[in-house]
Structure to design on (1301 residues):
């Protein structure tokens, strides 16, 4: 019967206890959200206040790297398999100077050189024309975009239309909304050609198959303005590279088809392979004279030397070998020679392959005719891989030709596979 | 037997404890041995006019208690028991009760009407006792048959109680019509007997909820309104009061039907406020307060922007009545009681008028200012304290509602005056002035106003006045603490920068601690207010004063330690000590959170974590049976700061954690403990494993209990998620228990909710809890060889997502949680979930919908989900 109790205006007291309860609840639910995001590998709010990566990194001088050197760098560094979860990228963005360079130098997936044709090429592989240029990781975060070369040094630092790649409305986002693209920067048209996607808006794609990654890069990149012509807040254009099923038509399209960039060979990706940092046999590079002007290695003057040159690493016991793990031993230098030249273990040394060539027995290197030339260029971080040496060796003698690839596809194709459509992702 | 019952019932009210106890035992024995016989004897006793009124009343009371209980579970049990009772006995009991309505004893009649209403509340919804309404109405007589007034009065009272007990949909419209007809006839001025009119008026109050259809009809509504208005003019004060209570109820239930009556109602209420006795005048003011409530709600909901199709239009009654209403209310402000500021429960004309004035200001905004300011200016300097207090109160009342633009110049001019008035000779004036200062700081915080009220120039003086006035009488000091609370709050968003409060931080804190330690701090809630203001000052302090906050840690630890020294206390002292411990734990909680959130001061907490924990455990220990909510909250905050190091406290803390989880009675404690389990999970990660059996057992028990307050269930589900995320695949042994619980809660929460906002909100809370549990479980099992254990549950989880998706009544939080679960499921189960995900057609639509959400968190989550699901489905 009594009407509702009315709270007197003047006694309308604050309940601090209620406030404490609510604040505790809010803290708990924020913490829960953080744990969930962490579990989903979205960035956690804990990292939100990490300073943007460019702050000290811009101080790093950009070393002038010769095209030839880059070519070598692309294939030579052995990637030690470091932890590569998406969350680490944000942590890495806190690294400074040489540490940052070191970290980023370990993040690319490096194809092996194709020495023989993998089986089921037409079933399990994609092929794409490889743009000539500087291989780099492009990271957009905190309203800016940074591209880093193979050795981790910065190529460009610029605004872009990638998510969180510029400090403008619609593009800027929370710190964890970063993207990482695997690109080749093509000088002539000043374009970043995207050959793979590693993180998108903070979601890691490391553990995704290349089939999915290509699908995702194709559907997501165009949604942003990243492929638009450059503008004030979008300094460089990004572009997709056409990806083909590696059947006869796909291979032909990749090999002969017109492309806006100058080609430097072909890349082959196994459809089921995850993004693997360092050298992997599930991604391959192949080239010949027709599709690359860098078929045979050049020296620092751009001249093809008469004899093949290789860079090998000096071991404790005087042996010299490739960058592979385990290292493939090419030859052994005697102690007097080492003392005379003052060479320490770990040094990278340049050799010419003599007329004796490489003797391969039962798939393994038995003996090599190596002639010491001198120390390798200081910019080199590691020796050549065995695989690369072998490709260059064969290229000078009996290269793997496009006809061999086509033949391999034809021999494995049954009637069904002929109907497979050329799929292009561009 | 009957003779004996009378004696036992009288003995049960004996002053002699021994006799009473014996009688109570006999009653219990009778109850246990022969319930139908017992209940019938009671009804017969109640109905027997030859019996003493004391035994009759107690018989009725026991009968009533056999039908209803406060506690839900007990109540349901009693209802079932009554329904299963022999029909013949029940018919006899009911006949007795109806008979009693014509008794000459008013106590017996009144008791009988309450019992009848209780039985009606049980039986009518089950289509039993169909002739009840008819037989009651026949008591009212008719043109031919005059019924005795006492029978009519008892019958109307019964109808009133009945309307309180029975849900409106149970009565047919025909029954409603005849009940209303009887009630309204009873109220009519042609009814000569005031007892009958009063009973009828009170019955109408309860019957109004049934009158939906009748209020749609102009003629019927006019008639009801006329009779109610006539009631307000009755010569009997109780009838006038009851009639105004009807008007108050009508003003909220039938707001949209009032337009044509407002002029008359205004005149009636104005007269009552001016001339009538206080209980009547209070109801007359309450009418206008209620109209304000309605209009504030409408204006808030529609933002004052009414399109043609909005079904609850605002009639702007307050705005129209403003020129007459405001003077009427201002007049009441001058009718203060002496010393009312010291009386906690006081409610008088001046307070009701001031409260209403505050509501009017919120309803009309700027328009009230020119109507109130002349009154303020005229009275604020008068010699009579009543005038000064009323003027200050009027000014304070209108600070919420009008725009800052309108208020700022006035407040800027008034501030100096107000600060001076803190030295007024009268306690009430100072009390109201301090309250007004608090409202200035609350509603015109410096950060939000173009021309700040508090400037660098006047800030030191303002603070010194407040600090000085904290030494005033407890009621004034308490208001000053409140003012300081809001003053500090105004500087909350200063963040890591410099706060104007910083130079004075030390002085403020010292003054507040001194106030909390005053001998008379127990009066007017002063101690509580001082500590809580201290909390707000700490919360709102900027980083530059963090070292000063750190100095408070040993102070509060020592104080808390002191409360634990003296254990020999009277129950009153113990209660006081418990309260103080709560306040100190609250302060420590705030400090832990403040210092723990700053990298530069976190070490302070880590350094004395051992000492803090030891004290909190002692607080628990001296409470014995119950766990102190505040200490629990502080421990949660501590666990967050210490992280994995918290493991070392677990052994000693665990018994209290369990005790907290078992505390059904104080469900807030239970709920907070559940939250703290989450804190500890995040702090300890898999180190919590040894305690999980116990915790999970208790949580599962809680969920199965009917006694647990429902608001605790959603956090328990969320807590499952916290535990699963912490212990990963080790959660597998709990799956067989937890999953069915989640499943059945999911079923309940995915059924369409027709109902009110409160139910919808609860349903969404429940869904959120369930979804957080699923997320935690899936995420916890990621990359585990035991993942397949979850496959069995995947279809059910997807089904749940689909059903809440199709309901379309999710709030944003639930949507985000739901789409997240979809991703977690796909992420953890991987390709084994691919066929299932392909079959679930709704997934695509759901994710698409979330991708186009306006909420960026939903969008962001949905993008991840889209990627994860596409990867699984395509892979």
């Amino acid at each position: 019967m009594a009407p509702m109790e009315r709270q007197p205006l003047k006694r309308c007291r604050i309940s601090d206890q209620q406030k404490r309860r609510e604040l505790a609840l809010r803290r708990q639910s924020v913490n829960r959200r953080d744990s969930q995001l962490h579990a989903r590998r979205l960035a956690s709010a804990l990292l939100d206040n990490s300073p943007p990566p460019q702050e000290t990194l811009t101080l790093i001088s950009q070393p002038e790297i010769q095209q030839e050197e880059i070519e070598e760098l692309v294939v030579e560094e052995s990637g030690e398999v470091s932890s590569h979860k998406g969350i680490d990228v944000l942590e890495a963005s806190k690294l400074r100077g040489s540490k940052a360079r070191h970290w980023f130098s370990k993040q690319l997936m490096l194809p092996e050189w194709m020495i023989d044709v993998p089986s089921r090429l037409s079933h399990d592989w994609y092929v794409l024309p490889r743009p000539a240029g500087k291989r780099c990781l492009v990271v957009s975060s905190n309203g800016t975009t940074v591209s880093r070369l193979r050795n981790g040094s910065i190529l460009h630092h610029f605004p872009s239309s990638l998510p969180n790649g510029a400090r403008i409305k619609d593009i800027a986002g929370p710190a964890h909304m970063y993207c990482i693209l695997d690109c080749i920067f093509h000088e002539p048209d000043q374009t970043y050609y995207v050959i793979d996607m590693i993180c998108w808006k903070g979601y890691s794609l490391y553990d995704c198959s290349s089939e999915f990654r290509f699908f995702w890069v194709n559907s997501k990149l165009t949604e942003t303005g990243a492929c638009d012509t450059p503008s004030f807040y979008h300094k460089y254009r990004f572009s997709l590279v056409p990806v083909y099923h590696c059947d006869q038509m796909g291979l032909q399209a990749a090999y002969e088809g017109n492309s806006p960039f100058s080609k430097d060979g072909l890349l082959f990706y196994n459809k089921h392979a995850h993004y693997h940092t360092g050298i992997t046999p599930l991604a391959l590079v192949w080239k010949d004279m027709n599709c690359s002007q860098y078929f045979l290695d050049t020296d620092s003057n751009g001249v093809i030397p008469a004899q093949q040159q290789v860079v090998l690493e000096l071991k404790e016991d005087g042996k010299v070998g490739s960058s592979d793990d385990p290292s493939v031993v090419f030859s052994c230098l005697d102690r007097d020679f080492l003392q005379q030249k003052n060479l320490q273990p770990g040094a990278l040394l340049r050799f010419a392959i003599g007329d004796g060539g490489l003797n391969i027995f039962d798939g393994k290197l038995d003996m090599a005719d190596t002639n010491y030339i001198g120390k390798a260029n200081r910019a080199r971080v590691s020796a050549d891989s065995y695989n690369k040496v072998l490709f260059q060796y064969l290229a000078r003698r009996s290269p793997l030709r496009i006809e061999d690839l086509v033949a391999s596809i034809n021999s494995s194709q049954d009637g069904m596979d002929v109907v497979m459509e050329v799929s292009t992702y561009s | 037997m009957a003779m004996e019952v009378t004696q036992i019932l009288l003995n049960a009210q004996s002053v002699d404890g021994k006799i009473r106890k014996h009688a109570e035992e006999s009653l219990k024995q009778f109850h246990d041995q022969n319930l139908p016989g017992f209940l019938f004897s009671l009804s017969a006793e109640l109905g027997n006019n030859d019996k003493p009124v004391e035994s009759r009343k107690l018989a009725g009371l026991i009968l009533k208690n056999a039908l209803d209980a406060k506690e839900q579970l007990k109540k349901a049990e009693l209802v079932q028991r009554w329904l299963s009772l022999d029909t013949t006995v029940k018919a006899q009991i009911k006949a007795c009760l109806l008979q009693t309505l014509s008794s000459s004893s008013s106590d017996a009649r009144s008791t009988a009407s309450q019992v009848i209403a209780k039985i009606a509340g049980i039986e009518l919804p089950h289509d039993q006792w169909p002739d009840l309404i008819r037989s009651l109405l026949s008591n009212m007589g008719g043109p031919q048959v005059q019924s005795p007034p006492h029978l009519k009065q008892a019958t109307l009272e019964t109808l009133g109680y009945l309307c309180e007990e029975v849900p409106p949909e149970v009565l047919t419209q025909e029954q409603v019509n005849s009940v209303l007809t009887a009630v309204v006839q009873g109220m009519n001025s042609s009814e000569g007997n005031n007892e009958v009119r009063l009973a009828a008026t009170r019955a109408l109050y309860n019957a109004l909820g049934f009158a939906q259809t009748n209020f749609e009809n102009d003629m019927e509504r006019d008639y009801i309104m006329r009779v109610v208005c006539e009631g307000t003019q009755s010569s009997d004060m109780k009838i006038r009061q009851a009639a105004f209570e009807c008007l108050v109820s009508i003003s909220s239930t039938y707001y949209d039907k009032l337009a044509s009556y407002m002029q008359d109602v205004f005149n009636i209420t104005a007269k009552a406020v001016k001339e009538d006795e206080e209980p009547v005048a209070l109801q007359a003011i309450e009418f206008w307060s209620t109209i304000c409530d309605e209009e504030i709600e409408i204006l808030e909901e529609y933002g004052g922007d009414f399109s043609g199709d909005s079904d609850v239009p605002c009639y702007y009654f307050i705005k129209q009545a403003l020129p007459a209403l405001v003077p009427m209310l201002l007049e009441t402000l001058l009718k203060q009681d002496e010393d009312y500021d010291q009386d906690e429960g006081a409610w008088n004309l001046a307070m009701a008028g001031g409260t209403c004035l505050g509501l009017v200001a919120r309803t009309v905004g700027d328009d009230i200012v020119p109507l109130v300011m002349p009154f303020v200016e005229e009275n604020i300097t008068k010699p009579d304290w009543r005038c000064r207090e009323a003027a200050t109160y009027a000014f304070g009342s209108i600070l919420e509602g009008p725009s800052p633009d309108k208020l700022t110049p006035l407040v800027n001019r008034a501030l100096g005056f107000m600060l001076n008035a803190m030295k007024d000779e009268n306690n009430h004036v100072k009390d109201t002035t301090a309250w007004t200062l608090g409202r200035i700081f609350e509603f015109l915080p410096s950060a939000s106003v173009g021309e700040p009220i508090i400037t660098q120039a006047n800030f030191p003086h303002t603070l010194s006045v407040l600090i000085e006035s904290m030494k005033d009488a407890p009621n004034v000091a308490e208001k000053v603490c409140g003012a300081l609370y809001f003053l500090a709050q105004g500087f909350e968003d200063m963040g890591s920068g410099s706060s104007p409060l910083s130079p004075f931080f030390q002085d403020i804190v010292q003054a507040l601690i001194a106030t909390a330690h005053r001998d008379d701090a127990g009066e007017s809630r002063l101690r509580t207010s001082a500590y809580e203001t201290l909390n707000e000052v700490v919360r709102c302090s900027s980083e530059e004063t963090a070292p000063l906050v750190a100095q408070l840690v040993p102070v509060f630890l020592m104080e808390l330690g002191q409360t634990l020294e003296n254990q020999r206390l009277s129950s009153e002292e113990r209660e006081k000590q418990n309260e103080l411990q709560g306040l100190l734990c609250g302060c420590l909680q705030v400090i832990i959170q403040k210092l723990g959130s700053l990298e530069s001061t976190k070490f302070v907490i880590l350094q004395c974590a051992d000492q803090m924990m030891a004290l909190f455990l002692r607080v628990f220990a001296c409470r014995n049976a119950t766990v102190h909510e505040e200490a629990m909250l502080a421990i949660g905050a501590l666990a967050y700061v210490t992280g994995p190091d918290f493991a070392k406290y677990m052994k000693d803390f665990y018994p209290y954690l369990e005790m907290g989880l078992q505390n059904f009675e104080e469900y807030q404690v239970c709920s907070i403990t559940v939250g703290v389990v989450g804190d500890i999970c995040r702090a300890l990660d898999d180190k919590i494993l040894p305690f999980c059996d116990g915790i999970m057992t208790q949580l599962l028990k809680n969920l199965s209990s009917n006694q647990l307050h429902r608001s605790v269930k959603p956090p328990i589900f969320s807590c499952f998620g916290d535990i699963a995320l912490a212990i990963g695949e080790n959660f597998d042994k709990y799956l067989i228990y937890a999953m069915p619980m989640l499943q059945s809660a999911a079923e309940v929460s995915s059924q369409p909710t027709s109902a009110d906002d409160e139910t919808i909100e609860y349903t969404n809370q429940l869904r959120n809890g369930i979804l957080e549990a699923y997320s935690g479980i899936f995420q916890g099992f990621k990359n585990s060889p035991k993942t397949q254990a979850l496959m069995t549950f995947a279809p059910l989880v997807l089904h749940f997502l689909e059903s809440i998706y199709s309901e379309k009544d999710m709030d944003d939080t639930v949507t985000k949680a739901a789409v997240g679960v979809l991703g977690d499921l796909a992420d953890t189960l991987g390709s084994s979930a691919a066929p299932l995900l392909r079959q679930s057609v709704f997934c695509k639509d759901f994710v698409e919908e979330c991708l186009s959400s306006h909420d960026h968190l939903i969008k962001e989550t949905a993008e991840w989900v889209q990627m994860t699901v596409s990867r699984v489905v395509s892979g």
Remarks:
- Chain A has a mean pLDDT of 77.
- Chain A is about 25% helix and 25% strand.
- Chain A touches chain B through 38 residues (CB under 8 Å).
- The longest helix of chain A spans residues 16-39.
